[in-house]
Amino acid sequence: MNRGLALGLNVAVLGLFAAAVEHFWGWSRLLAPWSQIAPLTLVLAIAGMLASYALRGTRIYLAEQQIPRGAWFACLRLILINNALNLILPARAGEVSFPVLMRRWFGIDATQAAGTLVWLRLLDLHVLATVAAACAASGWLLKVQGLSTLAWLGAALAAVAPLAVYALREPLQARLARRSGKLAGFAAKALSGLPKQTSGLALDLVLTWAAWSVKLLALGIVLGLLAQLSPVLGTLGAIGGDLSTVLPLHAPGGFGTYEAGVMALLAPASGATELGALLAAAVNLHLLVLTTALIAGALAWLVGAPPSMPASQPE
Q: How far apart (Å, rounded) are the C-alpha atoms in residues 278 and 61?
């Protein structure tokens, strides 16, 4: 996408979002619930998000053996920049920054880096799907006959999916090699990013679950306080918001799609809570996530080139 067009689209979406907030709530009314949250709780939530980024940086550092040892901080910077670009650019356009920076900073082939990225994104989806199904089964689906059992079954299937893919990787690669098309190419790229040993798979899973557990716990508590819901339902809403950023398409900045993701999983659990109050809580959570990610990404960009990158080569 042309940079000028992308910038104009983001500004337009941001302007419409700000106007909509002012029209339906007014910014002062929207932000009022933050006064009910203890500053320490907010600090811990932000710390949880930053810890999640650090764990993701560690995941990249350990997954790609070609990254020079001692370059962990550069991996953290890469994650922060990639995450910020994903949030502000539409249709997952920010993902392009991952293979580009992996090649520029560490000399890793872009196709190889793309395969690693696809595999790690599938692990992210595995965690979100597992936790979302488990939260739904123990939350608002609990009293719906049959659906709770189906949700638990979905959680179990999502939980074992990476193990099944890893166990079947060789026959799957052989079959994909005989096929053509974008879907087959995408699947082949994902399989190329799989770790070569079982210990690597275990490490990827541990770091992925640790990163998401810290983040979802932090955001779930905040959303629960904002919407006056239980931590379980708060976590479910936070998952809905993050699912909107992991899936292939989302709006610039996530404005609208993030809130829709939160509402899609929380609306059935609203009970006596007004949908307007839930939506306001979703907007506030989105503002917290977006502000933290953009500030962290901007600081990571301004730090400068990693030692392994030639000084004459711009980022």
A: 38
pLDDT in tens, 155-198: 888 889 888 888 888 888 788 777 777 777 777 777 777 888 88
Question: What value does the mean pLDDT take over residues 134-155?
Answer: 69
Domain locations along the chain? 38-303
Q: What is the pTM of this model?
A: 0.82
Residue 200 has pLDDT above 70, yes or no: yes
The answer to whether 235 and 134 have CB atoms below 8 angstroms apart is no
Q: What is the pLDDT of residue 313?
A: 42
